[in-house]
């Protein structure tokens, strides 16, 4: 009897392995979702308003921040983006190719960032913060994207890729680097730039779920998918 049970177990183990592998492979393929599901999860993944800030993109300023904008312009600075917790501002001075992090209440300089690449200063750049507010970056269409430590101002690493967009996970642990043609889309460790995994299909828009475990992707207008991260 025991021999029969053992032989039966040995016989079904390969089948069980195939079944589990198939289930795992299914979760590694992009799963189709409806537009309503995408928009609902997109809204749930948007950053929560903090204090007097109500922006969703990090580049929309309240009336108070607009007043600070006029003040810092007199010193040659432009306010570019608000930190996720609403306490700091990312500013750029193109004339001297400088960038700084300012206090959000008085626009007082907290720290200067390491020098930006010259090409990033000659053209207007798109700055952003990581989801946890510990990293910042500037990206321009003619220069590598430079990632900085927002607590020390030091340059950490750069992404030498043109026409690439960066999206941060809410916990700040991961960055999605992609272009809309799907030529070079990959998930990276935010602090090191180490590649975690690569996506081999094109998409036009992407956000992380709030728990940072899924990517929500707009493949093309009217077509949406979700991708489970490893």
Gist?
The chain has 230 residues and is an alpha+beta fold. The chain has helices spanning 2-27, 35-45, 63-73, 118-122; strands spanning 31-33, 78-82, 88-93, 98-103, 109-112, 126-129, 135-139, 145-149, 155-159, 165-168, 174-178, 185-189, 195-199, 205-208, 214-220, 223-228.
CATH second-level architecture: Beta Barrel
Number of domains: 1
String of helices and strands: HEHHEEEEHEEEEEEEEEEE
Give the helix level as a range of percent: 10-25%
The parts where pLDDT drops under 50 for at least 5 residues are 15-27, 47-58
The total of beta strands comes to 16
What fraction strand? 25-35%
Can you tell me about this structure?
- The chain contains 4 helices and 16 strands.
- It is α+β, with helices and mostly antiparallel strands and about 230 residues long.
- It has one domain: Lipocalin.
- It has a 4-stranded antiparallel beta sheet, with helices on one face.
- Strand 8 and strand 9 (about 155-160) form a beta hairpin.
- The protein starts with a helix and ends with a strand.
Name the descriptors.
230 residues, alpha+beta, Lipocalin, 4-stranded antiparallel β-sheet, globular
Q: How does the SSE layout of this entry go?
A:
Blueprint: H1 2-27, E1 31-33, H2 35-45, H3 63-73, E2 78-82, E3 88-93, E4 98-103, E5 109-112, H4 118-122, E6 126-129, E7 135-139, E8 145-149, E9 155-159, E10 165-168, E11 174-178, E12 185-189, E13 195-199, E14 205-208, E15 214-220, E16 223-228
Antiparallel strand pairs: 1-16, 2-3, 3-4, 4-5, 6-7, 7-8, 8-9, 10-11, 11-12, 12-13, 14-15, 15-16
